[in-house]
Amino acid sequence: MTKKIFLLLLTGFLTFFHAQEEKDLLSIPNPIEYDGTEFFLTRAKQRSKTLFQQQYIPKDEEIENFNQIIDFSFFNKEIDMELAVRQKVEMVQQRQKEDKIAKVNVTENPDGTEYIVDFYISETPEKGDPFVEYNIYRFKSFDKGGEKSFLMLSYAKRIYGDIKSAAKSLAKQRDHLMTAMIEYKIPDIKVPATPVK
């Protein structure tokens, strides 16, 4: 069951609906500051006994057609980080068959305790404007007093309109956006002692 939820999370896109007054589940300050922008909690959900997910967007944005979004997907258990990375890479590689923009890169930090997977995808929905989305996933394992946990912290930025020009614009921003993710100090995450209903 957990494996199915994990795979669903890795292959799915950010499809939560806009919610009002969400209750924080991870003890993360709200709003959070990221790359000079304030992001406000817009969705918080316990998706299984071990998976807690929270999403943040800038003020005045809607989650259905966001420009920027941050996602904390926290597993209150040990997860195989290399497997998680591989599954995310394979998801993008599958898209490459139909999405000419799709491209993926993997970066490992010097001591091997974190990985970053960054990638581009494009979408042309039946309703709404086409867009290119640049995603950065930061994978990190924790071990506090023998209690192991795992975090997928992700940031996505979309540019709507002409696909080619949007892709070029995001490509120019890649170095800056990668640096912002690498330098971001992950807050101390704490989950509820009892399951959230």
Automatic annotation (TrEMBL):
Signal peptide (from-to)? 1-19
Which keywords does this Swiss-Prot/TrEMBL entry list?
Answer: Signal
User: How is this protein named in the record?
Assistant: DUF4468 domain-containing protein
Q: List the source organism.
A: Chryseobacterium suipulveris
Upper classification of the source organism reads: Bacteria, Pseudomonadati, Bacteroidota, Flavobacteriia, Flavobacteriales
